[in-house]
Amino acid sequence: MGDHLVRIENVDMRYGGEGGVLAVSGLNIAVEKGEFAAVVGPSGCGKSTLMRLVTGLHIPQTGSVVVAGQQVTKPVSIVGMAFQNPTMLPWRTTLDNILLPLEIVDKHRKRLRAHKAEYVAQAERLLEIVGLKGFGDKFPWQLSGGMQQRANLCRALIHEPELLMLDEPFGALDAFTREELWQVIRDLHAQQDVTIVLVTHDLREAVYLADRVFVMSARPGRVLHEHKIDFPRPRELELMYDPAFTKKVQELRGEIADARQVA
Ligand SMILES: Nc1ncnc2c1ncn2[C@@H]1O[C@H](COP(=O)(O)OP(=O)(O)OP(=O)(O)O)[C@@H](O)[C@H]1O
């Protein structure tokens, strides 16, 4: 069914060679093109390992990882990534930080030289979507934590990746800023034609943003439950007061509590 951008089948991933830590085992995950998927689970269940598998930073010992129809055997260039702590270079302006991935990826480097104005316009368009219009010439240290995370999202999207992987990107922010950024990422997803996989501990975040939520078991991680989240879009923050929303969050909380007990 559907057209899968990410398909993980029967994957085992062990750290430190034979006899090492089995991080995930029998992992199966399929994410459709254009979908917003969230992955939740107990601490240490292998969520970050999953990110590394999809981006090709780890190659599994068993099973297969296919992204955009290609078996993953090395780092994947159609992926954008954003992590909890944005690492902006302090000596570069925000705009130049956003353009950085283009200087690193071979394919874009030549294009960047020839079409700089186009890419600058694209960066400015992204800055506008995330609410940072006019901040491109500021240095990262002149921005608040939430603003840096907004810029970080622009940087992850500048090369127009088909897939955006987000590893707890809002974890370090206060509750209000986090909610603001949920709306930013919701709008980016709606406007950019990008598939998103979000790894998070925050169940409200998962249910508010995602079309599909995967619940992982304790280590070795595998998917215990998969939920389709059907709340219509665009979703407003008020949705979180809806009894159906709370019910879904509680259902997930119960499943994770059970998964922890098995550990
Ligand atoms: N380089 C490594 N060497 C050995 N074990 C590792 C390594 N990286 C991760 N692990 C182990 O593999 C398991 C999964 O790690 P991973 O970082 O993927 O979990 P996680 O779900 O992201 O954790 P958390 O929820 O705490 O962020 C953990 O139990 C961890 O101890």
From TrEMBL:
Domain ABC transporter as annotated: residue spans: 6-243
Pfam family, any one: ABC_tran
CDD domains named in the record: ABC_NrtD_SsuB_transporters
InterPro entries, A to Z: AAA+_ATPase, ABC_transporter-like_ATP-bd, ABC_transporter-like_CS, ABC_transporter_ATP-bind, P-loop_NTPase
Top-rank taxon, per record: Bacteria
Gene3D superfamilies: P-loop containing nucleotide triphosphate hydrolases
UniProt keyword list: ATP-binding, Nucleotide-binding, Transport
One Gene Ontology molecular-function label: ATP binding
SUPFAM superfamilies hit by this protein: P-loop containing nucleoside triphosphate hydrolases
Membership in a protein family: Belongs to the ABC transporter superfamily.
Protein name as annotated: NitT/TauT family transport system ATP-binding protein
Organism expressing this protein natively: Aquamicrobium aerolatum DSM 21857
